[in-house]
Amino acid sequence: MHAKNVLKTYESVAATFDRERDKSLFERRWLDRALNHATGRRVLDLGCGSGRPIAQYMSERRATVTGVDGAPAMIELFQKNLPKAEAIVADMRTLDLGKKFDIILAWNSFFHLSPDDQRGMFPVFAAHAAPGAVLLFTSGPAAGEPIGQVGGQPIYHSSFDPPEYRTLLDDNGFEEIAFVPEDPDCQMHSVWMCRKRPSA
């Protein structure tokens, strides 16, 4: 299983993923923190999947959501679940929307990229971040390339050690607000919250 197979896998399991994805909003505390830190409500959801529950929750909180996913089947579900939101089929690695956002989410999506592609994402984050924008993403707690499962299929993940993420963030104009590895209040997700420096 390799990073290059991730989009094909999500395309093939989209309906199962949407049906089985935990919708209890265990992520709510982090999403609320992002909303509280942000200066606006323009949200870019990278790897948005079907939009449930995260994009739906942000929309209910008066956010204007743009969902981006490289799997067309996921975007089809996203449009069904959030008919008023903008939905774009695109690979996050080459994204260039020409727009800035107040919150950028890469929740359980960014960590499916290879190490080199993860490094390349930080300029993409920066290019879409308004001054003071909040970047919220999940990673692993330490460096590695584990294989998980989605919809009964194997799925690739990768992560760096925290110091490398901190260097990438700093080099691209972001400051760390919080990092909680294996957050016990978030189903053991390792969560980063960062802010785009106003002058960066």
What does this structure look like?
The protein is of the alpha/beta class and 200 residues long. It has a single domain, classed as Vaccinia Virus protein VP39 (Rossmann fold, 3-Layer(aba) Sandwich). Helix content is 32%, strand content 29%. It is built from seven helices and nine strands; from the N terminus they run αααβαβαββαβββαββ. The chain has helices spanning 6-12, 14-20, 28-37, 54-60, 72-81, 115-127, 162-171, and strands at 42-46, 64-69, 86-89, 101-106, 129-139, 147-150, 153-156, 174-183, 189-196. The strands form two sheets. Strands 3-2-1-4-5-9-8 form a seven-stranded mixed sheet, with helices on both faces. Strand 6 and strand 7 form a beta hairpin. The N and C termini lie far apart (37 Å). Residues 43-132 form the Methyltransferase domain. GO terms for molecular function: methyltransferase activity. This is Methyltransferase. Pfam families: Methyltransf_25. Keywords: Methyltransferase, Transferase.
Structural class: alpha/beta
Count of alpha and pi helical runs: 7
* CATH architectural group: 3-Layer(aba) Sandwich
What's the count of strands? 9
What's the level 1 CATH class? Answer: Alpha Beta
Report the biggest beta sheet as strand number plus sense, adding barrel if it closes: 7 strands, mixed
Q: Helical amount among residues, as a percent range? A: 25-40%
Domain Methyltransferase: 43-132
GO molecular function, one term: methyltransferase activity
Keywords: Methyltransferase, Transferase
Pfam families: Methyltransf_25
